[in-house]
Design goal:
Elements: H1 2-7, H2 23-32, H3 42-55, H4 59-67, H5 74-87, H6 91-100, H7 106-122, H8 126-139, H9 146-156, H10 160-174, H11 177-188, H12 201-210, H13 212-226, H14 232-244, H15 255-268, H16 275-278, H17 282-292, H18 299-311, H19 318-328, H20 338-354, H21 361-370, E1 376-381, H22 385-396, E2 407-412, E3 417-421, E4 426-428, H23 435-444, E5 451-456, H24 460-465, E6 467-471, H25 479-482, E7 494-500, H26 507-519, E8 525-530, H27 538-555, E9 561-564, H28 570-580, H29 586-673, H30 684-744, H31 756-769, H32 785-797, H33 804-816, H34 820-839, H35 841-879, H36 882-902, H37 906-911
Parallel strand pairs: 1-6, 1-7, 2-5, 7-8, 8-9
Antiparallel strand pairs: 2-6, 3-4, 3-5
Helix pairs in contact: 2-3, 3-4, 4-5, 5-6, 5-7, 6-7, 7-8, 8-9, 9-10, 10-11, 10-12, 11-13, 12-13, 14-17, 15-17, 17-18, 18-19, 18-36, 20-29, 20-36, 21-29, 29-30, 29-34, 29-35, 29-36, 30-31, 30-32, 32-33
Length: 912
Amino acid sequence: MDKNLINKHLYKQLVKSATNKPELQQLAELTLELDETSEVTVDDIRFGQGELYFHHKDYETAIFKWEKVTGEKVPWAQKNIADAYDAQGLIKEAKKMYQSIKSTDEMLKTEVYLQLFSIHMEEEKLDDAAKIIKEAVELNPDYPNVTEIARAFFEQYRDYSSAIELAVNEAIRTESMQWFDKVSDYVKQDLTTTTSPAYFMNLLTKLAALDQRKYEQLVTIFWSSYQGEELYFDWLVEFNDSFAKYEERSEKNWPLLSKKYEETYFELISGTYFIREIESIIPVHMRNWFELSKKANDLLSTTAILAWNELFPGQLEEAIMYQAKEKMESLPVQSDSLESSLMLFQEISNWAQKHELEVGQRLRWLMQQLLDFDKKHVLIAGASVGAKKSFLDDVVGETNIPEQHSSFIFLKDGDEEIIEIDEEKDKIDEEVSETEEVFTMESEDNHEAFSMLEVKWPSTFLSESELVLIDTPVASRNEENNQQWLPYLPVADCFVFVLNGNHPFTDHEREFLLKLKSQFPEMPLHFIFNKMDGIYSEFEEERILTETKSRVKYYFPNAQLHSFTPQTDTRNVADFFLTITDVELLEKQRNEKILYFIRETIKYLFEQRTEMEKEHLHSVTWNEEMVEKLKAAVHQLNDLEKEESALIKDSYQNIRKEMKEDIEKAIPEIIRECSSYIKEDSDFKALQGQLNEEINHKIQTYLDRTIMPKFANAFQKWLETSNVAFIRSQSYLKEMADGFNKLYQHERFKMDGDFRILDDWHRDVERMSAGVAIEPINIFNGMSPSQLVLKSSGKLFGALPNKSMLYKMYMKFFSSEDFSPIARHISTQFLMQFELFERGLQRDVQMFFKHPFNVLNGAVKDAESEIESNNEAIGTLKSAPEVYRDPLTLFQVRIRQYEWMTSDKRALEMRA
């Protein structure tokens, strides 16, 4: 029935296939045969007729027939009418009809949704299409192909959030692996990384109940996709909470998940994250890891719990701690963790470099020594200076190492060479070829600070026995001196203490060794009894040796004591060293030593962090002092510049003013003197021109031969005075620069004045001293009454025979006229270039001081920048101490874990 309605084949139930009558004719005849007893109704016949007309593409008649249908088939008739409109391309009418259908029939509603979906797709209304297909899926997900149509649509138009939602819902609803696989595909394409992990927990819970293998695979895929993304920690929280509820997690093998838990654990404690970010995740993470690893007897998860609890006690449940400790006693020691330890050291080094810290070169070098498994390290110590020195000289050969020294010396066979292993870098003193010279220099420099040396020396004993002997400073009563070298003691494979046969195992030696064993309980301790050249008889020596062995055994039961006879016992010493160094356990012991030095590295980095803050504070204080001093120096330099500028300018002005005074005083007299050229019989018509020519000649001669020579010498003296002033200023600048260079402890300040200014002044003075040509003057060209009369007198009275009146007029003019304006005019012309030169003097003096000012101001700017950057660094260190503290603390967790993994004393440690 449903299928016939959908395919419009309901009419087939009303017609007979055995007859030859057309189906429409049969339905028409059936209408005439209807009576009250008929099972078929008029609505059935009209519905079937509509179907037939539809199949014959007579859509209008089909619509007409369906419009006449009444009763329960009306919704289906409406749907068919909409189909007919759609078939005719009448989309608007079809959509309106579909949307008008009211029915509770899920199949009909689903068909309507699918038809509307098809129309929306045709109209390219994707949002409407998405909405309608979601409604279809929600209404009737079991309807044939509806979920596949939805999935294909979402994927085609990249609506992956809807596609993921569909796949998750269908996987949970149908429990079909096909849908779980589809979710897996989306995860692999990284399409789920922005979706909250909580959304997928029901899906995973469902899959866990259906197929454990697929569950583990899908979880691993999800895990990898979220890793490194913003929601990574959300995933860890949500999944761990979900997995903690999975009761069967400890009863099955989880190879993929176990590996993922391990990788994530080490990632979380790698120093990338702060403790506050992971402390809420780690407890449940480790609990789940421990539970799923129970069947596999995993050492990593067990030691991770024990190590974390030691550094963060109280965060893990007591029950888990008890189980981990109990399990630890039955797990084997891991003997191949050396690679992990070295990787940890490299991670710490990389982290330190990234955070502007430096793993000490000395620690790096010690790590390299520990990796040389071909050489056994025997540390030689003693409280008796002579006993230790004579023993080493006998077995190694005389190395010229003094009895008293403050160095930790690695004695190796090889061509003579000395290398100092500095804290920051390797320092090789190539100029020192003799060992004795190194220690002579150390003594001369009063070098009391601890140092570490690698001394290579041709030695048959060291070569044949494959040993490296470590010579230490003498065991001192001063605890502070001992603590300079004792932290490096674990680099040795065993510790040999040399006793003076004349005074063996003194109270001081015993106390020193007891403290050492309490600090390094795992370090093998043995003794050399150096007989030396004593005054005792052979019997007395034997008695003392026996008593010494007894006392040594009482305090150090595992210690061996070798009696050494100088100059005769080298071979026996080699055998003794061979017996006290366990070659089979060497790699395991070296790994423990590497972990010790990694711990020392972290301690060193913590100290560096503290020192870094101190250095920043010191830098701020120092630079603030420098800013004050530099600004004071700038003020002083300003005063010096003003002082020198005023001195140079004033002395120059005095010369110029004197020139002006001389010119303005001499010119009127020169003009009046020219009256002697006027005679009563002079040709007064040409007299004015002759007089002007003579006056101009005399003035120019005066300027060139009197003024210029006189003041050329004055300017030369001025240049010499200026040079002395600049030299004096340069001396002051050098003194200032030397003072600052001493404060800065390097040649930071070079404050040279610009003496090229003097060269420019010399050229300018020479040019001005060469002479100045002035414009000719006309003394009769003024506006005074006398000048006006005389200007035209030659034309008016020049032809008269009696010229005495003109003569008297000219003489009166020269004697009474004020020629000072002319003199000022001439001096102004003459001194113009001197005044221009004067205007530039202040600027030139500033040029002399420009570079020193730039140096000082640049230093001020640099110091202020240093203050700002150091204050920012201090602020960061104080506001976010976890930037350094947390990673170093987490590195300690890993060290402790590796120690748990490799230690033979785990049961003791757990009970301690």
